[in-house]
Design brief:
Length: 394
């Protein structure tokens, strides 16, 4: 006999889907529950948000040409990547200062990844250490590196990631310098946050966020505390500014290849020549992304950068895509244009803000169900055949 807990879980899931059938529903609720300074940090791009919005607009221009009369279809979205089977070709992209957006975020994201079996990438500047997040992710964790200038710190980070069960290393290439993030400045977002009357007033309107803060404490760059020899956020922020970023070169990438024996992925690539050089230097995958439009407001929409890179690499390595994924159909669009796997940043954070710890799993379910439905609608069982259903873009 099936027990009550099963039916309760099932009806809970279907109630959630009725109330929040789209990522945009989670986004709206998250905006009400996250203090405005943290919300601006999450949703803004840079400059006038042109690149952020273009990511979404360019995805919407990708259309399908369905075929029908296919009888009973049973779309299968499980995907293998680097020898691991994942529930769908979607993962949780690295997000820094996570605990500011939702206190306890990294722990919740890592647990979600383990529960639904998708990859979760822990950022160097996340607010949980690899030793905490790795075991929670239970083999689903990847580690993202902002390349430290100090080689000893770099080597130590790689060792800690490996020892904590992270299977893949993601090196972020697209932050040669901090971007201007004008809206974050105007929202008075500082690291650490400076407690002003405006900040207190903003937090006071978000009781669930304040409660989560009480439980998990103020956010800190936990991974870096060991090197900065301090746990005060102002010293840590200074440490991040002085030690991370601006150091990545082709030779540095080759050194990383020597040091890391597992899958090595370069994130933030938009140019085919760069993509080729990554592969020539031994990268196992190229991650096409414009950082969610947060670095260069004049950057090409990420999906428009994908096709030339796919053509250049010609199946030499799997290609990962992110920037602008807000629905299962966006995953289908990226796969149709030659990506092998996708990631989303904001979509999972919207889930967390809207629903707390259970929110990322619901965001995943929206994306998975959306992708499965697109496969039905275009007449396919197998997502790798999506390129055959691509129509023109206009
Ligand atoms: C609030 C926020 C923080 C981010 N922090 C990082 C980071 O620490 N490291 C990194 O490689 N990318 C970071 N990214 C970029 C994401 O990994 C991802 O490329 C981007 O969110 C994809 O766009 P999407 O939000 O439209 O899905 C961040 C993105 C956001 C929204």
């Amino acid at each position: 006999m099936v027990d009550n807990a099963f039916w309760n879980t099932l009806s809970m899931a279907s109630l959630l889907m009725d109330r929040f059938p789209a990522i945009s529903d989670l986004e709206r609720r998250a905006q009400r529950r996250i203090p405005s300074f943290a919300w601006t940090y999450l949703e803004s791009g840079t400059g006038s948000d042109v690149a952020r919005d273009e990511n979404i607009a360019a995805l919407e221009r990708v259309k399908f040409r369905p075929q029908f009369l296919k009888g009973i279809l049973e779309p299968r979205v499980e995907t293998e990547l680097f020898g691991i089977r994942y529930a769908a070709p979607i993962g949780i992209a690295p997000v820094g200062l996570t605990g500011l957006i939702w206190p306890g975020a990294d722990e919740a994201l890592a647990k979600t990844a383990a529960e639904v079996r998708i990859p979760y990438v822990l950022s160097t500047v996340a607010t949980a250490a690899p030793e905490t997040a790795g075991p929670l992710a239970d083999g689903m964790g990847w580690f993202q590196l902002y390349p430290p200038r100090d080689r000893d710190i770099r080597d130590s980070l790689l060792q800690r990631a490996k020892d904590s069960g992270f299977t893949a290393l993601v090196v972020t290439a697209d932050v040669p310098a901090p971007s201007r993030r004008e809206r974050q400045r105007k929202a008075q977002l500082r690291v650490p946050p400076v407690i002003t009357p405006r900040l207190i007033a903003s937090a006071a309107t978000c009781p669930a966020w304040v409660q989560a803060l009480r439980v998990h404490g103020a956010p800190s760059f936990k991974t870096l505390e060991a090197y900065a020899e301090t746990s005060t956020m102002s010293s840590l922020a200074g440490f991040v500014g002085a030690n991370l970023g601006g150091s990545l070169s082709w030779d540095y990438l080759s050194e990383l290849r020597e040091l890391w024996s597992g899958p090595l992925i370069v994130k933030g690539i938009l140019d085919p020549e760069d993509a080729q050089e990554c592969v020539d230097r031994g990268a196992d995958s190229v991650w096409v992304s414009n950082h969610g439009g947060r670095q260069l407001d004049g950057a090409v929409g990420a999906i428009d950068a994908l096709e030339p890179i796919v053509a250049q690499l010609n199946t030499a390595v799997p290609i990962i895509f992110d920037s602008g994924i807000r629905d299962g159909i966006d995953i289908a669009r990226a796969l149709a244009l030659g990506a092998d796997f996708c990631f989303a940043g904001r979509a999972f954070m919207f889930g967390l803000g809207a629903l707390g710890g259970g929110g990322p799993a619901h965001a995943f379910e929206i994306l998975r169900e959306g992708l499965t439905n697109v496969l039905h609608q275009v007449g396919l069982d197998d997502p790798t055949e999506l390129p055959n259903r691509l129509a023109s873009r206009s």
